[in-house]
Amino acid sequence: MVTGLRPIEVRTAAADVKRERREATDGPAQVAKRRGSWPVVDGDEDPAIKHTRMLGAWSARTIFLMEVVYVAVFVAGFASIRNTSDPLPDPYLAIAEVLILVMAPIMVCLMLAIHQCAPKQAKPFTQVALGWMLAAAAFTTVVHFVQLTVARHIDSATFPGYAGIFGWQWPSTFYAIDIVAWDVFFGLALLFAVPAFPHRGDATLVRRGLILSGSLCLIGLVGPFANVLGLRTIGIVGYTVVFGLTCLPLSRTFNPGTGRVNSGGATE
Fold first, then answer.
1. Per-residue pLDDT tens digits for 100-112
2. Domain with 51 in it
3. pTM as predicted
4. pLDDT value at position 85?
């Protein structure tokens, strides 16, 4: 019979013994996963998180390359008409819309990888970020799919109100929906993902890039509210140039370090 111990101390001691036995059985990798970090242990890594890291790194690099092509298409398109106030003409507009349709699911994959690799204390924020990114991808996919498959097959001359529904000149319904997708949902997704990255190494660059990009997206909303669409350029720079550049250090944060998750996990 144990004497001199209070009941609560006995229960605590029993719980400690059970935890030690479970950790001895599971091994260090599984124990670290439950604690919110996924380390490399003895040269091995949990296959699930390894695949998630690969998905995140691949998604970030792909988005960077697609952003470069996207910006190049816009520059070439506006240079061809020597005017930035008119809508982007075809075939440049069609190419840009196809790029967006391809990029949308990749953005979701990237945010999913960030959420999975985030430290435990940041997961509530990254889960919200994933939700915002899903909304952004869904809205912009609908807009550009309809533009490519429906709007181009309608005679604007015989369709009353065509420009106000499908047009890319303000005000336009589909234009407004796309603004919500990128300036609101996408901007919020980036800002809510910031807690996943610590203040060290490439993660510091990622934090700054996400904050700057997300903030510029939200500031770009001044344009449609003030009916001065030129101010939307602020948001466009945020989700193209700034976010594209941020994807470079972001891709490196998914590299498995020695015993730590570089995308923000705790060190061992």
1. 999 999 999 999 9
2. 42-252
3. 0.80
4. 77
CB 235 within 8 A of CB 220: yes
pLDDT value of residue 157? 87
Beta bridge partners of residue 256, listed in sequence order: 261
Within a domain: residue 116?
yes
Q: Are 254 and 116 in contact (CB under 8 A)?
A: no
Whether 25 is in a domain gets the answer no
Show the tokens assigned to 146.
């309809």
Output the DSSP codes for 165-225.
HH-SSSS-HHHHHHHIIIIIIIHHHHHHHGGGS-SSHHHHHHHHHHHHHHHHHHHTTHHHH
Q: At 38, is the pLDDT very low, low, confident or very high (cuts 50, 70, 90)?
A: very low
Contact 117, 36 (CB under 8 A): no
Q: Is residue 163 part of a domain?
A: yes
Single-letter amino acid code for the residue at 64 = F
CA dihedral 113, 116, 120, 121 (to 10 degrees): 40
Tokens of 50: 């390894």
Residue 5 lies in a domain: no
Which residue pairs, CB below 8 angstroms and at least 24 apart, start in 173-178? 174/143, 174/146, 174/147, 176/224, 177/139, 177/142, 177/143, 178/139, 178/140, 178/143, 178/144
Cα 243 to its chain centre, rounded Å, is 9
- 242 — alpha (psi -120 to 50), left (phi > 0) or beta? alpha
Question: Total structural domains in the chain?
Answer: 1
